[in-house]
């Protein structure tokens, strides 16, 4: 009889844990909460300008445009209060913009790198210049966003791009043995034209599965065990909830752009070879001369470091450097090292070049 209350408490604790588990597995967390204003649109793409922090009086002169990949939401850059790269920059006085590529529909299947780099990016950058009143701009590209910004920077070196930051940039596809995604894209196993004939656009769920399958135990077992073991820790639970919300919100890649990614880059390495043609114009990386910072995640299994290192040998930038961070493809920007190492380093580098 004396132990009955203990049993009751144990059941109450178990019920609470199951309730927490159900909530984070079946609902979306509030993410991307930093105040912003929609300032421009083109097709599905939207350009946002973040509201300046009231507490910060000094402003950096050169505006910064953030560009993420095509197959995920850019909300990873503004995951949640206290763990937001966007919030971090706004609080330090940057005139900050974000280009959200949006959700392509079947009607967008023919959109190519050509369209993103010669239509969307130049127009968005012109809008940034107009709103900021400055003829120079800084751009940060992450993952495929880094591919697009690199192509743009090489094709239009006179458009006022002052600083270029590349995060985990998959640019060099020459080392086939180290290309983890190369296992899925090899023509012996993957017929890209048949897939696109069936779907039009490349489904985001298929890309997400391919990425997770590179580390199946970690992604399908360890990730959930970590959550279960920490259901009594609100900080870990809410961080997991926010990250899971972002991961589940996948976006298809337009068929034509995905085909370029597989054929031109993964299989033929045309960008680094100087053979990539964008609307008939050869992409010559030696024309890129903006100040360049390449951020490499040393534990990245999506974009191995070898894909991001050689760009410095190709460009004409007089101010260029590599910054290496321990961590993975996403973790270097949202994990524990982000607040203490990645964000402060990027901000110091950029701040010194934004006056």
Automatic annotation (TrEMBL):
Any one GO MF annotation of this record: hydrolase activity
Taxonomic source organism: Terriglobus albidus
Keyword annotations from UniProtKB, A to Z: Hydrolase
Keyword Hydrolase on entry: yes
Keyword Hydrolase recorded: yes
Domain AB hydrolase-1: 85-334
Pfam families named among the record's database cross-references: Abhydrolase_1
Record protein name field: Alpha/beta fold hydrolase
SUPFAM superfamilies in the cross-refs: alpha/beta-Hydrolases (SSF53474)
InterPro entries in UniProt: AB_hydrolase_1 (IPR000073), AB_hydrolase_fold (IPR029058), PHA/PHB_synthase (IPR051321)
